[in-house]
Design brief:
alpha+beta, two-stranded antiparallel ribbon, 35% helix, 7 helices, six-stranded antiparallel sheet, 262 residues
């Protein structure tokens, strides 16, 4: 028997489908508009969070509403060409995104499997470092580091004395490691173990490492209970980035670079 209901009646299948589709379309437009409208605020918040982490790993305190001002006053971002180990003005640090560059073959290079202890696959050709200034002198150099842990890629910073060897601090700002286990990389007590450690031995070789327990000497840091793989990942990523395939050439040139550009 033919359906004699008007298509405008509330119980007609056509109207039900029409209303459902209309609601979905309107909702999609509203969500898209909100996402576009909020994009500048999201970018600003991400930039502020990154600045806060740079200040924290450098040991600088700042109230939430003063982060931007303290960063502007004390921190100088500079881009390093990792191939030469020298500062470069070819790239503007304000608009440079290392994660995007890492995926661009024109701005990065593949890391050979036997050298990829950080499991990053590609290394950008340029990286932004942060110079912490006290009046006219550089008191801390902050390097961006990243590498794979157990479940995720950890992104963070390692802060060094101007000698390029003594560690001031290590801090991660983005990862998805298990809370209470690998997530303990964020524990201030564990992060504090890195301060004062040395990256290199007397022969100039990378010596810093995370050990399961019983750390001894200037090059070892105790691991995290129940998070062996995450701790190993942190050890590997730090060793990679301060080695010759990462910032090693820059650290070799650091004294000269700071003298010429300080």
């Amino acid at each position: 028997m033919a359906d004699t209901r008007s298509i405008f009646s509330n119980d007609h299948p056509f109207k039900i489908i029409f209303m459902a589709v209309s609601v979905c379309l309107v909702a999609s437009v509203l969500v898209s508009a909100a996402a576009i409208g909020l994009r500048p605020y999201k970018a600003a918040n991400e930039r502020l969070a990154k600045q806060a982490n740079v200040l924290q790993v450098a040991g600088l305190d700042a109230e939430p509403d003063e982060i931007g001002a303290v960063f502007e006053r004390r921190i100088e971002p500079r881009v390093v060409d990792l191939r030469s180990g020298r500062f470069t003005d070819v790239i503007d640090p304000a608009g440079y995104d290392e994660r995007l560059a890492e995926r661009d073959p024109a701005l990065s290079e593949a890391v050979p499997a036997d050298a990829d202890i950080a499991q990053i696959k590609r290394r950008p050709n340029f990286a932004t470092v942060y110079l912490v200034r006290s009046e006219s002198a550089v008191e801390t150099v902050i390097l961006p580091v990243h590498g794979y842990g157990l479940w995720s890629t950890l992104y963070g910073f390692v802060a060094l004395k101007p000698d390029g060897n003594e560690i001031v601090g290590l801090q991660f700002y983005d990862h998805a490691e298990t809370p209470g286990l690998g997530g303990e990389v964020d524990n201030p007590n564990w992060r504090a173990l890195w301060a004062g450690k040395s990256l290199f031995d007397d022969a100039g070789d990378v010596a810093i490492e995370v050990v399961k327990s019983g750390a001894a000497g200037p090059h070892q840091v105790d691991g995290i209970a129940g998070a062996t793989l995450t701790a190993r990942g942190v050890s590997n990523l730090v060793r990679y980035w301060v080695g010759q395939d990462g910032f090693g050439p820059f650290l070799d040139n650091l004294e000269e670079e700071l003298a010429d550009n300080g």
